[in-house]
Amino acid sequence: MRLIQLIYVSDLVGENEAAIPAILESSVRRNGENGITGMLLYSHGNFLQVLEGEQDSVRETYSRICKDPRHHNAILLTEEDVSERHFANWSMGYRQLGPEHAAKLPKYAPYFQFGFDVSAIRAKPGIALEMLELFSQGML
Ligand code: FAD
Question: What is the pLDDT of residues 25-56, one digit of tens each?
């Protein structure tokens, strides 16, 4: 089995935060069926998500996600082979980031405090995964 990890960013359509619970419900349900684990972060109208699992399942899931009309402007940041899951405990963990996180985490704040800064994230390889892991550990 080829295990991969995929990270992307996207924009919530219309900043309609009321849509997020239904997105999470179907994510957790479908990921359980498809052997996908991961984490979804939301900040100021932007999503940052990591999906991990068997290559075909991750690619099929990402392609379904990209067609979802509740968000747009999906940008793939990384797709890499991994030897083990980093988010094994989460069918899909979720955190909404706000000013309290920016104040507590000044090192990471520039990357998320006004929404995810794609240029800054791209300029610092590894930072997206570092943030996703940090916030997933904070959930335990
Ligand atoms: P249902 O949840 O029953 O939905 C049926 C269809 O209607 C889908 O095409 C869905 O896109 C669409 N839909 C549902 N509700 C609405 C609505 N309120 N407005 C417009 N269209 C709607 N899916 C995963 O499997 N794993 C993930 O990790 C995952 N992460 C996501 C992250 C984000 C940011 C977003 C926006 C979506 C994510 N999804 C994820 C959801 C994915 O896009 C599909 O909606 C879902 O996988 C389809 O599940 P379902 O077949 O059970 O359909």
Answer: 999 999 999 999 999 999 999 999 999 999 99
> CATH number of the domain that 103 lies in?
3.30.70.100
Ligand 1 atom 12: residue of nearest CA: 68
> Is residue 86 a contact partner of residue 52, using CB atoms and an 8 Å limit?
yes
The response to whether residue 95 sits with its C-beta less than 6 Å from ligand 1 reads no
Determine the structural domain holding residue 92 and report its residue range.
Answer: 3-136
Question: Can you tell me whether residue 52 is helix, strand or coil?
Answer: strand
The number of folded domains in the chain is 1
| pTM of the entire predicted model | 0.94
The ligand 1 atom nearest the CA atom of 10: 34
**In whole angstroms, what is the distance from residue 140 CA to residue 138 CA?**
6
- Give the residue, out of 26, 36, 37, with the most ligand 1 atoms within 8 A of its beta carbon, to mutate for a pocket test: 26
